[in-house]
Write a structure and sequence with these properties.
2 domains; 4 helices; alpha+beta
């Protein structure tokens, strides 16, 4: 049961709206070795964070820029891989580079999302979307 007239967790100014509830999830894995047996335990923590409509709109800002930066980073890293390793000798290298280009793309998307989230949070005097413990992407 939710409290009535609960304030937004991010800005602490406006009343929270249940339509704009933010669910953050964090997963951790613990591995124990006992003799020949390996035990793996995965723990998932889920936070339901209340927020207002204004903070929801602030958290949605920058999604287009993240997408554009990801596409540009993917194309540049794929072209660089093909040029640096001279992929014209073997057609199979073109196929492998499609997947290898995802690594720098993911790193650039993560950095872009993190920096834009903190930029808009400081600009509008609120908390970033993942400030409660969830991941950026």
């Amino acid at each position: 049961m939710e409290k009535l007239n609960q304030k937004c967790w991010y800005c602490k100014r406006n009343d929270a709206d249940p339509k704009f509830l933010n669910t953050e999830e964090n997963q951790s894995t613990e591995v124990k070795l006992k003799g020949f047996y390996k035990y793996k335990k995965t723990t998932t923590k889920t936070w339901k964070v209340v927020r207002c409509k204004d903070c929801y709109e602030i958290h949605q800002k920058g999604n287009r820029e993240i997408g554009i930066a990801s596409v540009i980073a993917y194309l540049i890293s794929y072209i660089l891989l093909c040029v640096l390793f001279d992929a014209s000798k073997n057609w199979f290298e073109f196929f492998i580079f499609l997947f290898l280009a995802l690594v720098p793309t993911y790193i650039i998307a993560y950095i872009t999302a993190f920096s834009l989230g903190h930029f808009y949070a400081s600009k509008y005097n609120t908390q970033p979307k993942w400030s409660r413990g969830g991941d950026v992407l």
